[in-house]
Specification:
0% strand; 118 residues; mainly alpha
Length: 118
């Protein structure tokens, strides 16, 4: 298994966890943090601590995702190719030939409406 494949699997897992953490939050006081509040008398861990945990989890997962994406760029196997641009090389040849331009001959008897030459 290549290093890039490992980074790719980690990126998918972190992205999934980030989506789950974001979906659990509700900016209007609902979501997971309000379900712990109940009627306001019984709190399991407290609403404020749950919101802080979800907020810190979001920032941590987002930072981890960004770092993994940047590190995965280093792990891409480029096959040892020369990364210089061929547009700057004056000796480089193009792999595709230029399209042929049809040659138009002048025919004094032909008119624009009659292109067959009759």
């Amino acid at each position: 298994m290549s290093t890039f494949t490992i980074f790719l699997a980690l990126i998918v897992v972190v992205a999934f966890l980030l989506v789950v953490v974001i979906m659990v939050q509700n900016p209007k006081g609902g979501g997971l943090s309000s379900s712990f509040g109940g009627g306001g008398t019984q709190q399991l861990g407290g609403v404020k601590k749950t919101t802080d945990f979800l907020d810190k989890s979001t920032w941590t997962l987002a930072t981890l995702l960004l770092v993994l994406i940047l590190l995965s760029n280093v792990a891409i196997n480029r096959g040892g190719e020369n990364l210089d641009s061929k547009a700057l090389d004056p000796n480089a040849t193009t792999s595709q030939p230029l399209p042929a331009v049809p040659v138009q001959t002048t025919n004094d008897t032909a008119t624009p409406a009659d292109s067959t030459g009759n």
